[in-house]
Design brief:
Length: 279
């Protein structure tokens, strides 16, 4: 079997022809530099990957290997970040693989209308992510942070215990309602300054390792030229209720427009969230 038949084509993104070259030392999955494959005005950024790792069966096993997955995701993101510095790419899902260049061209041909529509929508823009977390109201955390809040009296009777429990539950519910109102107001304010916005499902803190309860998990499509103003708006808003109600506002980006590569505004999966079967 020839070497060519042992290599598949890993596709990172689709974009328009680049106005500037990528860095000469840029490498992707497997430490191999990506290349451009042109087809009817579209560019697929691709790289060779070994069939023994990226064919359907071995790929399924590898995706359960967290170390392998993390290495591949970092290499994938490295290429996407480099593309984002020179254009507005449409990122494809992690481990999108085709049999050969012909399969990639077929993908470009079949998806041409959607690719051009999305590329037009995201042209000149980047994605910013904003999360709002409601910090834990654990009294021990407050005391360790140096606050002077007195410890609650130890209940003397069952009735006292129930009264204190209801009081804590009421306070927690009121805190959550304030947090949700703050997050909703923040989202509406930021969405007015963005070309588009997406609300994702709240993150599970046990999986994300982020402290507190995730109240808002949103992405905003912002013109590059207005990104500085968008960041300043988030920074101004962070202090409004953070200290008084235990809120934490987190800003990430700028990213490629992962959340805006689908025509379905209710879709919750970014474009780099899954795999494609080899073709």
């Amino acid at each position: 079997m020839s070497l060519a038949s042992e290599e598949l084509r890993y596709v990172y993104a689709v974009c328009r022809p680049l106005d500037a070259p990528l860095a000469a030392d840029l490498t992707g999955v497997g430490g191999v530099p990506p290349r451009q494959l042109a087809h009817e005005g579209l560019i697929a950024v691709v790289g060779p990957v070994p069939e023994r790792e990226f064919a359907e069966e071995p790929l399924r096993r590898h995706l359960e290997d967290l170390d392998w997955l993390a290495d591949t995701a970092r290499a994938h993101q490295r290429v996407i970040a480099a593309l984002t510095s020179v254009t507005c790419p449409l990122p494809l899902r992690l481990a999108t693989v085709f049999r050969d260049d012909s399969g990639v061209r077929t993908m470009l041909q079949e998806g041409a209308d959607r690719f051009r529509r999305v590329l037009e929508r995201i042209d000149g823009c980047v994605e910013w992510g904003v999360k709002v977390h409601l910090e834990s109201e654990d009294p021990s955390r407050e005391r360790s942070a140096g606050t002077s809040a007195p410890a609650p009296d130890k209940p003397r009777t069952g009735r006292d215990y129930l009264r204190q429990r209801r009081s804590r539950q009421t306070a927690q519910e009121e805190g959550r309602q304030r947090a949700e109102a703050f997050a909703q107001g923040l989202h509406e304010k930021l969405a007015r300054r963005a070309d588009d916005a997406r609300l994702h499902a709240p993150q599970n803190s046990a999986l994300s390792k982020a402290p507190g309860q995730n109240i808002l998990n949103a992405a905003y499509l912002v013109p590059r030229a207005h990104s500085e103003e968008f960041v300043e708006l988030v920074d101004e808003t962070k202090d409004e209720e953070r200290e008084s109600s235990g809120l934490r506002v987190e800003l990430t980006g700028p990213w490629a427009a992962y959340s805006f590569t689908t025509d379905d505004p209710t879709a919750d999966e970014p474009a780099a969230g899954g795999t494609e079967r080899s073709r």
